[in-house]
Design a protein that fits this description.
- The structure holds two protein chains of two kinds.
- Chain A has helices spanning 50-57, 80-90, 106-111, 121-134, 150-162, 180-197, 208-212; strands at residues 6-19, 22-35, 39-43, 65-70, 73-74, 91-94, 168-172, 200-204, 216-221, 224-229.
- By secondary structure, chain A is α/β, with parallel strands linked by helices.
- Chain A has one domain (37-59, 80-229): P-loop containing nucleotide triphosphate hydrolases (Rossmann fold, 3-Layer(aba) Sandwich).
- The longest helix of chain A has 18 residues, at 180-197.
- The mean pLDDT of chain A is 92.
- Chain B has helices at residues 3-11, 15-42, 44-48, 70-75, 107-112, 121-129, 138-144, 187-197, 218-228, 241-250, 253-284, 286-294, 299-335, 347-374, 377-382, and strands spanning 53-58, 66-67, 80-88, 102-105, 117-118, 133-137, 151-155, 162-173, 183-186, 204-205, 207-212, 236-240.
- Chain B is of the alpha+beta class.
- In chain B, the strands form two sheets. In chain B, strands 1, 3, 4, 5, 6, 7, 8, 9, 11 and 12 form a ten-stranded mixed sheet that branches. A two-stranded antiparallel sheet of chain B has the order 2-10.
- Chain B has two domains: 2-44 and 253-381, no CATH class; 60-234, no CATH class.
- Classes of the chains: A alpha/beta, B alpha+beta.
- The complex binds adenosine-5'-triphosphate (ATP) and magnesium ion (MG).
- Adenosine-5'-triphosphate binds next to strand 1, strand 2 and helix 1 of chain A.
Chain lengths: 233, 385
């Protein structure tokens, strides 16, 4: 289909949660490939394990078995500390509820992940300004999240996600809390990240219109995955 | 952006809650500081006593006198540099609630032994000239608004009758550990009046004050003095001034222990209050801490944020409490000067305030930090929304 290199390679992934004495299987033998600069939408009914899968790819949860290789590194072999360092360098997160720190300005929120990078103050400022310019919020740098609309907050969150220039971007229902116009806005921005910056985006969504922007839509149902490339990809 | 800024912003996010917690810490540290000051005031007499002064009293009890004739014998004992004597008068000024220490003493020798008591030379000369003369401490004089030349009448308790004295001198302490609330007059005046009235206690003294050549020989000299008067009519008990002072305090030791206990209970309570504030705060922010962890911040960063916030809140209250301790102690010292002639906030008390604040802040941060560090990120993120 395509000869672009694989950025995410998942093989035989199992994950279950314990509820009391019972084991509740959530992901059942998942295998998945995601190419570089691919925009993938992950759909499926509520409770099907979308967030769980996304968290495993992003290294904030642990699988029971299977391998997850991101950019050539099997992250299932990393320790907690190594994983934290890996996330800081390789993953950008976009959440449904933006998850900005309310006592920090837009600028400071975007700067946050750079504090772990060892960049100088000057470099950090230039990175943050670039990221905020990209999401078209240069004029709102000193605003606090409470002073921004939902769509603007999500744009700040996107700037925070890309400011470290990560390998992959994961987004869990990034438009789930937004009105149509703002949602459009955010999706356009994500498309630009893929096309202009060559980012790899994995997005969980319930919204078919959002999913239509993606190159690939994967459906997760009862812990089983079936991928289906978009016709125009 | 500075991490400190984030800590400060976090600390003052809930204005009312933080204000109330800071207020609580302020009051707790203030109360703790005052109670510690009461305890040190209790021991002020002991602290101020000199290691080279001995007190000889009747072995049976302080309420029995010793003959004046012992003076010469004591003077001849090896190691003794000087001897003086005094008698507790226990007079009441107008009303019992006006209590202050008052005693008769041999003026020249007694004051020589107390270099920490400073009397202007003209006052001293006037005092020595007047048989009915008396000297009072600066604080005592201020308390009753006395002036030099005033006639001060004390109602005798041990020695009945109204006794008139003329205020001839005002003394100051060499430093703030010296009691400036005492009142003393000439032993000769007491003795002659008693003699004229044909009373007991004539030619008798309440205690001998002895200066020795070197603090190291205190035990030996004490033994020698007491041996000299063994099997006499009035056997003696000699001890250092410090031990003598301590024997008074020993009677009220239980109260001191109770105060000590209360002071620690206060710290314990405020620990619970701050811990509760921090637990509430951390519970609300569990999602935020999960975001920090998602971005790659480690356990040290998260604990730093939480302990930092606990420190900011507690130290703000602690510093305010310490600052308030000084004016509060001044008011205390003015109203309670009868009970605590020396009431100073000791440096150790401030150190203890700081230590207590640190302890409170650290312990209050432990549980929230532990929770925030150990919660799984995926679970923390699920709490949002
Ligand atoms: N920490 C947990 N402990 C127990 N069960 C869990 C835990 N987290 C998720 N689950 C269960 O795992 C299943 C998958 O959850 P997940 O959040 O991945 O679903 P989802 O597809 O993202 O759903 P939604 O579309 O509603 O967000 C659900 O049945 C959920 O109840
Ligand atoms: Mg989900």
């Amino acid at each position: 289909m395509s000869s672009r290199p694989l950025i995410v390679r998942i093989r035989n992934l199992f994950k279950s949660y314990r509820r009391g004495s019972q084991m509740l299987p959530v992901l059942n033998d998942i295998s998945l490939d995601i190419e570089e600069a691919e925009f993938m939408a992950l759909m499926g009914p509520s409770g099907s394990g979308k967030t769980t899968l996304l968290n495993l790819i992003a290294g904030i949860d642990r699988a029971d078995s299977g391998t997850i290789t991101v950019g050539g590194l099997d992250i299932t072999t990393l320790s907690e500390t190594e994983l934290a360092g890996w996330r800081a360098n390789h993953v950008g997160f976009i959440f449904q509820f933006y998850n900005l720190i309310p006592v920090l300005t837009a600028f400071e929120n975007v700067e946050l992940p750079l504090l772990l990078s060892g960049l100088s103050k000057k470099e950090r400022i230039s990175h943050v300004e670039t990221a905020l310019r990209m999401v078209n919020l240069s004029d709102r740098m000193d605003h606090y999240p409470g002073q921004l609309s939902g769509g603007q907050q999500q744009r700040v969150a996107i700037a925070r996600a890309v400011v470290t220039d990560p390998t992959i971007l994961v987004a869990d229902e990034p438009t789930g809390d937004l009105d149509r116009v703002s949602a459009e806005d955010i999706l356009e921005l994500m498309e630009r990240l893929v096309h202009e910056l060559g980012k790899t985006v994995i997005m969980v969504t319930h919204d078919p219109r959002a999913a239509n922007k993606a190159h690939v839509i994967s459906h997760l149902d009862k812990g089983v995955l079936n991928a289906r490339p978009q016709a125009d990809f | 952006m500075h991490v400190l800024k984030l800590i400060f912003k976090n600390a003052f996010r809930h204005k009312l809650r933080t204000f109330l917690t800071v207020l609580g810490v302020t009051i707790a540290i203030l109360a703790f500081g005052l109670l510690r000051t009461v305890i040190s005031a209790w021991y002020a007499g002991v602290e101020a006593s000199s290691a080279s002064r001995l007190v000889t009293r009747n072995a049976v009890s302080l309420i029995f006198p010793l003959p004046l004739s012992y003076r010469e014998k004591i003077r001849q004992i090896e190691g003794v540099k000087g001897v003086s004597y005094g008698t507790w008068f226990g007079g009441i000024y107008i009303d019992e609630k006006n209590f202050f220490a008052n005693y008769a003493m041999e003026p020249k020798t007694y004051l020589e032994m107390y270099p920490e008591i400073i009397i202007p030379p003209d006052h001293m000369a006037a005092f020595l000239r007047d048989r009915k003369g008396a000297v009072a401490g600066r604080k005592l004089v201020e308390r009753f608004g006395w002036k030099i030349g005033d006639i001060i009448t004390l109602k005798g308790t041990i020695f009945p009758g109204n006794w008139d004295f003329v205020l001839r001198g005002i003394y100051r302490g060499r430093d703030n550990t010296v009691d400036e609330t005492a009142f003393f007059f000439q032993w000769d005046y007491l003795n002659e009046t008693l003699k004229k009235a044909g009373r007991s206690w004539t030619g008798q003294v309440g205690w001998y004050l002895i200066v020795i050549r070197d603090p190291g020989i205190a035990a030996d000299v004490s033994l020698r003095i007491d041996k000299t008067f063994k099997n006499s009519l009035a056997e003696t008990l000699t001890e250092t001034e410090k031990a003598f002072q301590l024997s008074f305090i020993a009677m009220s030791e239980a109260i001191v222990i109770a105060i000590q206990l209360v002071s620690f209970v206060i710290i314990f309570i405020i620990m619970a209050v701050v811990a509760n504030t921090m637990a509430m705060t951390a519970r609300e922010r569990i999602g935020e801490y999960a975001v920090f962890k998602t971005l790659g911040f480690g356990g040290l960063h998260i604990s730093g944020l939480i302990f930092g916030e606990s420190m900011v809140i507690t130290m703000t209250g602690g510093v305010l409490g310490i600052l308030l301790t000084f004016p509060a102690a001044k008011i205390f010292s003015e109203t309670l000067s009868a009970y605590f002639p020396v009431f100073n906030v000791a440096t150790e008390t401030i150190y203890m305030d700081i230590a207590a604040s640190f302890l409170v802040a650290s312990i209050a941060g432990i549980f929230p930090a532990w929770r925030a560090v150990n919660i799984r990120i995926a679970d923390g993120l699920r709490r949002i929304g």
